[in-house]
Amino acid sequence: KAALQGLHMRIGIDLGGTKLEGIILADDGSVAHKLRLPTPATDYPAIVSTVCKIVNTLQAHAGGRLSVGIGTPGALSHPSGLMKNSNSVQLNGKPLQQDIEAMLGYAVRLENDANCFALSEAHFGAGKQSATVFGVILGTGTGGGIVVNRQLLTGPNSIAGEWGHNALPSSARRLIDADRTCYCGRVNCIETVLSGRGLSTTFQERYASVLTAREIADLATQGDAAAQ
Asked: Which member of 70, 91, 159, 222 lies 3.0 to 4.6 Å from 83 by CB, making a disulfide possible if both were Cys?
């Protein structure tokens, strides 16, 4: 705590499909402290509780209340404040920001994780010399964010840049055995194939075996023909 005194610090939370990670971040971009816990993926109340546990632990480590920003899959639907378009489907239709704020007792900032990533790269990373930046995420789902002149472009429905919800090209349709309904309500979105969940579904279709994307990748590196 003594080492953090006098610095302008913030807390950042990454709410992912498999892990929840929090950091205390300094103005110079250095990470003063980090904490990671597994995401209780199928239990919405447990997700809210775990987010707050990480925030409270980091606040205690900092020795004072820091501002909190949370990157999450999906987006807030306005004016309802309910989550939508999240590949962590248990978040959809839930007042995530309101529930976190109620448990913590103070306001937090919440934004789509791909938007956070793209904005960070536009200001401090690979895109800092570019007027327009398109950031791509490939993970549990497929996401993206667009930044123009260092300003985030979200669109009227807060889904600008979400390329994973364009239709699967006909050239890739041969990769799947049957139509796939996406959690967004459409059929055969790119994300239903090109994502961790999509990879697992394709493997199950072809080989009648249920494996995670990580397990498939591990088998592929070991030379397993089906995984490759």
From this structure: 91
